[in-house]
């Protein structure tokens, strides 16, 4: 598909009529904050109205028009601005439960980047799937998505389907894992330069507009740090538990403590399933029995003991893990039984804590 331009979007939206004023929404200056990233379109409509049916009508008209005039598979996010009047809306039936088909949602978190969080999340998902479970992997790292590279799906994009009259994104599937990432919707050559609300909006779409189906586990690869995206996700998704990823050295452990504190806040109160120590020791392929503690020894275990958290396991630093992630074949798909066993033990401990 050719690159979509802002002018194309405005031209298409000029065919959408405002149901109350009888003119198109572009000439009424109701369209703003247009963002285009490859297959992803987002914009804001200025509608200060209590009539939810008006907003819904215009929103659906915008989405159907863009798919009809630009591309049937574009992913569209429509936001609204303008504060409605104070009149209350009539009571309605409760909306369907978010991620209603997902039995367990696991947030994989690190306080800082560079500790291998995405590698841990990807191989945890594969280790869970190896047991026969149905598993999804949501790449919530908007600014640094890794899943397309690690699963070898760069350049591919998800399709859309109609579910009860609503357009839903169908996750890609690779190695038996259902995958969704912003990296599948935007051009990887461009930086995702989005403010917090825009990034949070995209995360909400991964939750409400993706047809995850029935899953035993949905693993969420969280962005590093603590910020808007974390709060949005944790307050929107019924997270069953969180896994903290750290390396053994003090610099990483200090940031891991911030994550533990974040999950314990009253407005979140998410159970921390435990801490896994990544890059625990280096084992060269030619000397598989040797262990070299490059980043320190058992720092993660000491931190888990300090906070009275389960210690979920140690993942070695081996060349095959890096090579597999770069080639789109995670280590759990390889023949490295020693490293695969480390992830199996880790996954087993996660399941134990969930139950």
What does this structure look like?
Mean pLDDT is 82; it is low at 84-95. The protein is an alpha/beta fold. An 8-stranded mixed β-sheet has the order 8-9-5-10-4-11-12-13, with helices on both faces. The radius of gyration is 22 Å and the shape is elongated. The chain is built from 10 helices and 13 strands. It has helices at 6-13, 52-69, 117-130, 147-150, 196-208, 228-236, 250-263, 299-306, 319-327, 337-354, and strands at 31-37, 40-46, 75-81, 102-109, 135-139, 159-163, 166-170, 172-174, 177-181, 215-221, 241-246, 272-282, 311-317.
Strand order of the largest sheet: 8-9-5-10-4-11-12-13
Q: Could you spell the SSE succession in H and E letters?
A: HEEHEEHEHEEEEHEHEHEHEHH
Task: Determine the number of helices (DSSP H or I, runs of at least 4 residues).
Answer: 10
Quote the distance from N terminus to C terminus: 46 Å
Describe the global form. elongated
Attribute tags:
23% strand, 13 strands, single chain, 3-stranded mixed beta sheet, 355 residues, alpha/beta, elongated, 10 helices, 8-stranded mixed beta sheet
Summarize the helices and strands and which ones pair or pack.
Blueprint: H1 6-13, E1 31-37, E2 40-46, H2 52-69, E3 75-81, E4 102-109, H3 117-130, E5 135-139, H4 147-150, E6 159-163, E7 166-170, E8 172-174, E9 177-181, H5 196-208, E10 215-221, H6 228-236, E11 241-246, H7 250-263, E12 272-282, H8 299-306, E13 311-317, H9 319-327, H10 337-354
Parallel strand pairs: 2-3, 4-10, 4-11, 5-9, 5-10, 11-12, 12-13
Antiparallel strand pairs: 1-2, 6-7, 8-9
Helix pairs in contact: 3-10, 5-6
């Amino acid at each position: 598909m050719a690159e979509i331009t802002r002018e194309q979007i405005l031209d298409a939206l000029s065919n959408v009529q405002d149901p109350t004023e009888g003119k198109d929404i572009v000439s009424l200056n109701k369209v703003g904050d247009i963002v285009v990233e490859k297959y992803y379109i987002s914009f804001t409509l200025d509608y200060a109205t209590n009539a939810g049916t008006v907003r819904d009508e215009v929103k659906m008209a915008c989405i159907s028009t863009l798919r009809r005039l630009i591309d049937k598979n574009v992913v569209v996010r429509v936001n609204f601005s303008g504060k409605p009047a104070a009149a209350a809306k009539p009571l309605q039936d409760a909306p369907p439960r978010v991620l209603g088909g997902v039995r367990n949602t696991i947030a994989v978190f690190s306080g800082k980047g560079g500790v291998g969080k995405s590698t841990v999340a990807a191989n945890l998902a594969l280790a869970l799937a190896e047991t026969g479970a149905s598993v999804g992997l949501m790449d919530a790292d908007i600014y640094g998505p890794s899943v397309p590279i690690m699963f070898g799906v760069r350049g591919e994009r998800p399709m859309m389907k109609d579910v009860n009259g609503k357009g839903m994104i169908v996750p890609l599937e690779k190695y038996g894992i259902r995958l969704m990432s912003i990296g599948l919707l935007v051009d990887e050559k461009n930086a995702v330069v989005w403010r917090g609300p825009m990034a949070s909006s995209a995360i909400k779409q991964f939750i409400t507009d993706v047809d995850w189906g029935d899953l035993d586990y949905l693993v969420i690869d969280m962005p590093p740090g603590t910020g808007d995206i974390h709060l949005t996700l944790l307050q929107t998704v019924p997270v069953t538990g969180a896994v903290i990823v750290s390396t053994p050295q003090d610099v990483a452990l200090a940031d891991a403590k911030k994550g533990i504190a974040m999950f314990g806040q009253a407005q979140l109160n998410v159970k921390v399933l435990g801490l896994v120590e990544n890059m625990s020791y280096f084992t060269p392929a030619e000397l598989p029995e040797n262990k070299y503690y490059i980043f320190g020894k058992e720092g993660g275990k000491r931190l888990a003991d300090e906070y009275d958290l389960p210690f979920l396991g140690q993942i070695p630093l081996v060349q095959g893990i890096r090579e597999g992630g770069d080639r789109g074949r995670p280590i759990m798909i390889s023949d490295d039984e020693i490293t695969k066993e480390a992830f199996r033990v880790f996954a087993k401990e996660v399941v134990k804590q969930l139950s």
